[in-house]
Amino acid sequence: MNSSYNYSLQGCVSSLHASVDLLGSSIALLSSGVDDLPRIKTVLKAQRVFEVVPESEVNSVKASLAGEVEPQIFELLRRAEAAISKLERRQKNLIAKAELQEVRLQRQPRAQDPENSVVDTDNARKWRTLQQKRERLEYSLSRLNLAAEQKQRQLRNIQ
After folding, report:
1. Does the global pTM surpass 0.70?
2. Where are the chain's structural domains?
3. What pLDDT does 30 receive?
């Protein structure tokens, strides 16, 4: 009886050792899972407050922003187109002026007739001064137009 009793006890002891080993590995596994608990607790404590905005309000803000930006964009486009057309006119004028100068050079009288050269240089000088005066007046007109547009914009902004 003693020996069967020892066998039973030895079986119980070995089962107990296996249970202790299993519990030890379970504790090690659980402790590795909960070691980060203080940090997780801190992270979960942080409150994030998000305000939900209705879609209609978002759409109205988009529409108002578009209403503010679109006129400015169209004004800038209009200005750019006006500047481009002004540069194109200037280019055409310069081309015409160059062609006129070429024709004049081709038709320029020889040095044999000094009276014609004096008259032509006087005419050319007069023409040049008139051309310069015209360019100055066009420039002044464009500046006055820009100033008038700026005043109109200021009046619109005041209203």
Report:
1. no
2. 60-107, 114-159
3. 85
